Amino acid sequence: MKVGIAGGGISGLACAHYLRKAGHQAIVFDPSPGGLIGTTEVHGCLLETGPESWLASKPWAETLIREIGLGDEIIGSNDSLRKTYVLRHGNFETLPEGLQLVVPTKLIPVLKTRLFSWGMKFRMGAEVFRSPKALPDRSVSEFITDHFGREAVDYLAEPLLAGVYGGSPDFLSAPSVLPKFVEHEQRYGSVVVGALREKKAATGKPVFYTMRRGMGTFVGRLAEAAETLPYRVNAIDYNGVWELSAGGETHVFDSVVLACGANRAADLLKPVEPDAGDLLASIPHNSSSIWTLGYRREDVAHPLDAFGFLIPKPERQAIMACTWVATKWPGRVPDNIAVLRCFSSDLNTTQDAVRDDLRRLLGITAEPVFAQLNQWPEAMPQYTVGHTPRIAELEARSAEIPGLYLAGNAYHGVGIPDCVRSGKRAADAITRSLL
Ligand SMILES: Cc1cc2nc3c(=O)[nH]c(=O)nc-3n(C[C@H](O)[C@H](O)[C@H](O)COP(=O)(O)OP(=O)(O)OC[C@H]3O[C@@H](n4cnc5c(N)ncnc54)[C@H](O)[C@@H]3O)c2cc1C
């Protein structure tokens, strides 16, 4: 089977790996393979262009990395220093220990924190008395407000989810984004009771994994092993076989995998299957930019004694979240430098605006030693209310078109492990189609 893959981010590259493993020929088209993932080295610091890690509890990325011989390169986050600050009334308050995203599982840290008002603490306690119920799809904001009140949306759900989805909880779908908690609500009524009953014993594993020499080594190894062509796919057509127009030529394949982001896939698919194309186009995407600033360590008086901070919307100016790289990861930053990764959902956020925030929040007035800007327009798919049935319909329609497959972050999870899994699912489906 000869397969053409449009898009060589982690989803497309993972798909190519699993296709090759199953004995198929896969050609990946992408002018910049790796997609969002990449690593640079500046002043002796390893800097990530996009994602810096993945959730260790999801196995698919780790499995693939071990398969391609990079298992020894996997390292964990510095969990003994794990702490996150959240800005409240202009002060950094520590995110209480034992939170499963927004759900408390330890009493004392919640009672002691100054991040939540007493009203919210009371709501968290009273939540355990709820009765089970199955409700229709609704937004994360509605779901969290129902359980803990609006304050839990503003000071927990919104800043935590903004880092993952880059979107507003007012639009994100609770069953798509918080499936476990919705299940708990149906089974136990209370998400606190559900989280406590199903709490897993500590595995001793770090929360996050990354690659010792940067995430770029992961996609770099996959791209080296893949057959790649450095072209954008401009059009696709199906006439019993698939024809991909790229680099001024038409390339013919038995199957095609669209792994180029749902929004770009929509443009490619519309002329072939307008309904599936429209469904793809209906998935909104948000943008993200990262200013990574390096300072002389002596110019930063703050102890940087956490993984970083989150800024809830009511207190936000330019920065949405900031990672303190040397604290979170071993071996990335020399001792004499402090690296701050500052995230914004606005592509136009300027370095000056970011530095104003750092002055206000951390008292940093010095010039940075270096600054790196990575802008990712329309890169974060939004799992809005109705996402699950929308994707089911999209998959049903695409299944009717022989040899068409989708992979990527817009369907069943945005994290790197989910993307690897989506690439593998497409590869497995292609293999199954031959049986
Ligand atoms: C700023 C940011 C930080 C993130 N941090 C994390 C994190 O720490 N951990 C985590 O697990 N996840 C993180 N994510 C999410 C995760 O990185 C992405 O979901 C994932 O990398 C997407 O991979 P992909 O291959 O599906 O898409 P992409 O990486 O977007 O790759 C798509 C590829 O398609 C190519 N392409 C586009 N159009 C065409 C075309 N017409 N023809 C051919 N090729 C085309 C592009 O050049 C690109 O290389 C982050 C996302 C962002 C935006």
Helix content: 25-40%
Q: So, the CATH homologous superfamily of the largest domain?
A: Protoporphyrinogen oxidase, mitochondrial, domain 2
**Main structural class:** alpha+beta
Number of helices: 16
Which descriptor suits the 3D outline?
Answer: globular
Give a description of the structure:
The protein has helices at residues 10-21, 60-67, 107-112, 118-126, 140-148, 150-165, 174-177, 179-188, 191-197, 216-225, 262-269, 274-281, 325-328, 351-362, 387-399, 416-433, and strands at 2-6, 25-29, 39-42, 45-48, 54-55, 74-76, 84-88, 91-94, 99-100, 103-104, 208-211, 227-229, 233-238, 242-246, 249-253, 255-258, 285-296, 308-310, 321-324, 337-344, 370-381, 404-406. The strands form six sheets. The protein has a seven-stranded mixed β-sheet, with helices on both faces. It has a five-stranded parallel β-sheet with strand order 12-2-1-16-22. A three-stranded antiparallel β-sheet has the order 5-11-6. The chain folds into three domains: 2-33 and 226-284 and 383-433, FAD/NAD(P)-binding domain; 37-82 and 207-215 and 285-381, Alpha-Beta Complex (Polyamine Oxidase, Chain A, domain 2); 103-196, protoporphyrinogen ix oxidase, domain 3 (Orthogonal Bundle), CATH 1.10.3110.10. With 435 residues, the chain is an alpha+beta fold. Helix 1 (10-21) runs parallel beside helix 16, helix 5 packs antiparallel against helix 6 and helix 11 (262-269) packs antiparallel against helix 12. The structure holds flavin-adenine dinucleotide. Flavin-adenine dinucleotide (FAD) is lined by residues 6-12, 29-32, 35-37, 50-54, 232-233, 259-261, 264, 288, 290, 376, 379-380, 408-409, 414-416, 419.
